[in-house]
Every structure is written in structure tokens, then in C-alpha cells.
Amino acid sequence: MITLSEIALALYLVSDLVLAGANRLKSAVRFVAMQGVVVGILPVLMWNWADEGCPGARVWIIAFVNTLVKGVALPMLLMYAVRKARTRRELEPIVSFHLSQLIVFFIAIGAFAVGRLLHVHASSASELAVPVALTTMGTGLLLICGRKKAITQVLGFLILENGISVFGAAILLEYGIVVELGILLDVFALVFILGIAVFQISRTFSSTDTDKLNHLGDTHLMHPHHQHDHVHA
Amino acid sequence: MEHNLRNLLLILTPVLFAANLVQSFFYLPLASRHAKTPNMPDALYYTLFIAFFGAMIFALTAGSLPLMWVAIELTTLVSAPLIAYHRDKDGLEAMWKYLLICSIGIAFALFGTMLVLHSQTIGSPRWFMAGFAFVLAGYGTKTGLAPFHSWLPDAHSEAPAPVSALLSGALLNCSFFAIVRFREMAPAEAAPFCDNSMLALGIFSVAVGAVFMVRQNDFKRLLAYSSVEHIGLITILYSLCAGSADIRSMIVLALFAHIVAHSLTKTLLFQTAGNLLLAFGTRAVPVVQGLAVSMKGHALMWLVGIVFICAMPPSVLFFSELALVFSAPVWVSAVVLLLLFIVFAAMMKTALSMVMGRPLVKCERLPGSLALVPGALLAAIILLGIVSVYFVAR
Fold first, then answer.
1. Range of lowest pLDDT (A88-102, A214-228, B141-155)
2. What are the boundaries of each domain within chain B?
3. Can you give the C-alpha Rg of chain A in angstroms?
4. Of A160, A185, A213, the CB nearest to B107
5. Which tens digits make up the pLDDT trace of A2-14?
């Protein structure tokens, strides 16, 4: 039987494919926001309503805060960063958009194979959940490694984090409210600091391409004269 | 084991924090006097510095594993702005790399934590092994284990000296403790896998450290790679703990001694390196020469510090590395000894070229207060070395 949570998870899979091929940053942020909302309400959707009745306050609070932070606050912050850093598109990705979509497609096939091998469906809420979580994590990593814009890398991190949250919801892991909120606070603060870093990078380097961030390393040190021109203290 | 290590780090971390806080009082005014771009305001620096310490203590004392994850992520968040203390291009680049690489690592660690917790509810060692692999890669990134160490040399070389010292001396230990907590939970079937993967990463870290220390022209990066090497040695020592019971107590003692001695000596070295940076305005080894003539006190601290970190007796590290070589399988001992020899040669060549010779450039005179904390640390490590000689001789 197809449940509501499985429709939500299928939506996730589609959004992964779209995100892998998205070159407009604003629409990418919108899809990440959609993922955030879905991951927020997933615990409520996966709740065993028939047997356990209405979920307690803990589930509702976590679902509400999660949706608020991952579906609203962080996407708004990123939207602001996109506008402020004046980067609309990812122009020259390291891995092209079509190839990225193909890679995500194969990641999804691999994830379903792994899910079957580990017999995860026996211990998880839905057969789809673990493969979807793994695919989403793979998509996030692909965006971090295969894109140049700093903001896209932040988006990739958020997608990776969403994938992990889906996994947590899938195996019905319960940490307790303090830890859940702590994790959420960490993610929020991290994206906030990354956002500030994006501003500073765009101001200092007059670009948000992370391939400009290539000065540090061990190779240029072979020429000692090179050192003199960036004296610090 | 886990309990003792926690107690040890709960004593060691505040000591390192105090030493670096005091050094910050002397270091920051000079660092901002030379700066081309305006540095971070002092108030923000101290707030973040103290929060960094608090986050590390939180990580050590956290009860549940997910709560420890929250704490360790917190250490990344509060220490990242400290790395970009000099608000210039290189500082920003180091901070970006640190944030992004460590956050991906930490995300893996969260995934690993979930797998491990799940493995406990369904009682499956296979899930535990999968979880431990993610935890090792995740917290290993923060610990600076190769091949996940790429943030470490950049962050350690760009951060102001007291922050580098605290990153290297305290933070690496705290995230190593996180790995230890997971290893101690391993079911018997998963234990050999955990130990072998830690041994492999440990040896690889020592190798990476050794290779990048050769012909290293930046003296703070040299120290950073030395940290990669020592964290590798600590991981190897820990992976040997599961061996036979009669040598176990010796290895545990060696492990604890190594952690303490490395943290203290590395703090001394980073603080001295920070002072040299203030005096010469560069981290380039070829420019800094003739320390024995121009800065006698710092030349002594630098040379003795390097000799001690290379584990020359009377250094405590000599005895801990001796214990490692005696108790490890023969091929591990042989490889580690060869790599340690390369490290020794590379570090001594650099240190001697900096201390000996004639001064090339005129260096600035530093106030004596800057040598106060490193001087005390120098006395402490020599004293510890003499005590350890006495202890081993008995």
C-alpha cells in the first residue's frame, strides 16, 4: 500500500534529480526548502497512527521546529546570501549538470541495491526510506565536490544534512528533544557562519568561486621568494 | 580506558587553555600592531576563545553519543572565526576549508552515530562496523588523521599562535576521545576491524606527516604536519591496546604519556613559532636564520622543543614511542621507525638552519613577556622528561 510518507519520499528522490541539474541558484534554494519541509513533517507522516494514536508533544515540537528551521529560516538566509553575493547561476560546474543527473540516477540504483542487501526494510518505517536517505546524501556530496560557487557548496551541505535526517527518521531513531534541538541549532549556526563567510569571500575576492581559494598549500613554498609578499603579523 | 582518558583530558585541556589564554594577552597587542587589515576585535576573540574551551569540555563530559556530536560540531563553529583572526584572503581561505571539510566530516560522524545506535537496538555487528567506518572518517577529519587532514595545515598555519596551539594540543585530543568512545563500545566480532582500520589510518598519518615535513619551507606548517604525525602515533598506540593483557597496561601508560607530552611540547612550539612570526613578519624558513645570535632565548626554546617533539631522550615521547616499537608487530615497528627517522631528519634540518648561521634580516625586538609562557612550558617538559627517566630507570 502506498502511504503518504512514501509519496513524500518519492518527492525527495525527484528533488534530488532536479537539484543535481539546477543551475539557477534561486530555484535550487526553493527545492532545498521543499526538502526541508518534507524532512520536518516526515516523523509525523511515518507515525504509526493506527496503533499508537495521536503522537505526543515531543514529536509535534520537533516536527514544527525542524520545518521552521530547515524549510523556512535557512532557505531565507540562503536566498538573502544569493541576492547579496550577486551570484545567480552556477556557470561552469566542475561536473556538468547532465552528468550530475546521471550520477545521481546511478547513486539511487546503488542505494536501492544496498538497501536490499542490508535488509533495512525489516527495521525501518518504509522500504523507500533508507535508499532515499542514501541518495540524498550522495547528491549533497556531489554538489559540494562538483560545483564552484560557495553558495552551491553550502546548499550541498544542507542536502547532505537532510539526507542524514531522513535516515534518522527512517530507522525511527529517538534521541530525546534536547539532542534533536541541539543538532538543529548546530546546523543552523553552521549555515549562518557559512553564509557570513560567503559574504566575506565575495567582498574580499570579488567572486564566490571557490577555485579562487587556492593560495594555501605546500607547492608554492618551494619558491621562498614567493613568501615575502604575503607577510602577516 | 575511556573513563581514564576522559579524566586525563579534563585535566590537560584546562592547563592548555590557561597557557594559551595568558599567551593571548601578550600576543594579540603585537599582532594587531603589525596587521595590514584590521584584525578581529579583542572582545570577540576572547569570547570565542573561551567558548571554544567550553565546547571542548562539553564534548569531553557529554553523556550520550549524539550530545557529544553536538558538542564537537560546536567546537568547529566557535573555532572557525578564530582561524580568520587576521581578516585577509589567506585567513578566509583557511577558515572556509576548515568549516566545510570539518562539517562534512562531522555530518559523516552523525550518520555513523545513527548506524551505531541502530546496531545496538538490532544487535548486529555488521551495522556496527559500517557505523564505525563512518565515525572514524568523520571524527578522524576533526582529529587530523590522514587522508582527512587537508584542513589542518592551512588552519594551523593561518590562525594566531595561541589558537594554533589550542587546536593542535587540545582539540585533536578531544575528537580522538570521540573515536575512542565508539571503539570501546565495539562488540567482539567488530573489534579486529576497528583496530585494523585505526592502525592503517595511524600509519598513513605518520607517513603523510613525514613526507610533507621534508623540505617544508613554512615553519608553522612544519608543526602542523608534526601534529598529523603525532596523532597518527597516538592512534597506532591505541589500536595496539587490544593486544595481550600483559603489555596492555604499559601501552595505556605510553598512550597517556604521549598525549600529555605531545600537547605540552606542541603548545611550546606553536607559541615560539608565533613569537618568531611577530619578530620576522614571515613564516618562511629561509628568511629566519641565525636565531642563536639575534634571539637567544627563543633559539633555545625552538631547538629544545624540536628535539623533544622528535622524541630524543629525555623527552617523554621517547619512552612512549619505544613502547610502541616494542609492542607493535615487526612490520609496523619497522615502518614507523623508518618514518620517524625521516621526520627527525626533516625537523632537525629545518630547526638547525633557523638557529644557526648569520641573521639575514633584522628582526624586531620582542618584549620579554612573550617568552614567559613558553619558558614555563619548556621547564615543564624538561621536568616531565627527567621524572620519566627516573620512573623508567626504576
1. A214-228
2. 2-393
3. 20
4. A160
5. 778 888 888 889 9
